[in-house]
Design brief:
This protein has helices spanning about 10-20, 25-35, 45-60, 65-80, 85-105, 105-110, 140-155, and strands at about 5, 45, 120-125, 130-135, 160-165, 170-175. It has a 4-stranded antiparallel beta sheet, covered by helices on one side. It has a two-stranded antiparallel sheet with strand order 1-2. With about 180 residues, it is an alpha+beta fold. It is globular.
Length: about 180
C-alpha cells in the first residue's frame, strides 16, 4: 500500500480553524516538533504523525477528560473547523440537503477529501440505524466518532449516537443511530 496521508485541508480544518485561538505557543511548538507547522501547511501528512498530533492536542486542550472524550472533542473541533474550508462548506450544505442516512452512505467520499487511505462500508440496519465499517481509524476511533456526531448534528440529525467495536488491527465498525 502507498503511504497513508492526511491532506492539507484536513490539517487546516483541525489544527488551524478547529483548534484556532486555543492553539498555545507551547502546543504550536510541540506540533512543529512532530512535523506539523500550522503556519506553513504542506499538501500531505503521514497518518501516524497526524495521529500523534491529535492525541497530543487532545491531552493539552482537554486535560480533565478521558482520552476517549478528549478524542471525540477533537473530532468535533475538526468538523467545526472543516466546515469553514471551501470543501467543508460544500460538504455540509449537501449533508443538510440529503440528511443523515445519505450523508453516512457517502462517508467514504467525505473522508477521501481529507485522506488517501480511508475506506468505509455502509450497512443499513433499519430506520435511524446504520453500521459503518472503516478499514483504518489510526487507533483513534473516538476521534472518528466525534467527527460523525458533530457532522450529523450539523446536518440536523436529531439525537445522534455513535458507538463502535474494534475489528482487526486498524479497522473499526461504528453503530450510528438517530431519531427519525
Amino acid at each position: 500500500m502507498s503511504e497513508r496521508l492526511w491532506f492539507q485541508q484536513a490539517i487546516e480544518g483541525l489544527f488551524v480553524r478547529g483548534v484556532g485561538e486555543a492553539m498555545t505557543p507551547t502546543l504550536r511548538a510541540r506540533l512543529v516538533a512532530l512535523g506539523i507547522d500550522t503556519a506553513a501547511l504542506r499538501p500531505g501528512y503521514d497518518a501516524d504523525v497526524v495521529t500523534r498530533a491529535i492525541r497530543l492536542t487532545a491531552a493539552e486542550l482537554f486535560p480533565g477528560r478521558s482520552e476517549g472524550e478528549a478524542l471525540r472533542e477533537m473530532g468535533a473541533l475538526f468538523m467545526r473547523g472543516y466546515v469553514e474550508t471551501l470543501l467543508g462548506k460544500a460538504m455540509i450544505q449537501l449533508m443538510r440537503v440529503v440528511g443523515p442516512r445519505r450523508s453516512l452512505e457517502r462517508m467514504q467520499r467525505n473522508f477521501r477529501t481529507g485522506s488517501n487511505y480511508i475506506e468505509t462500508r455502509f450497512t443499513s440496519l433499519g430506520q435511524g440505524k446504520v453500521e459503518l465499517w472503516f478499514n483504518d481509524v489510526s487507533d483513534i476511533p473516538d476521534y472518528f466518532a466525534g467527527v460523525m456526531i458533530a457532522g450529523d448534528q450539523m446536518a440536523n440529525a436529531p439525537n445522534i449516537r455513535v458507538s463502535f467495536t474494534r475489528g482487526g488491527a486498524a479497522s473499526c465498525t461504528f453503530l450510528v443511530e438517530w431519531d427519525e
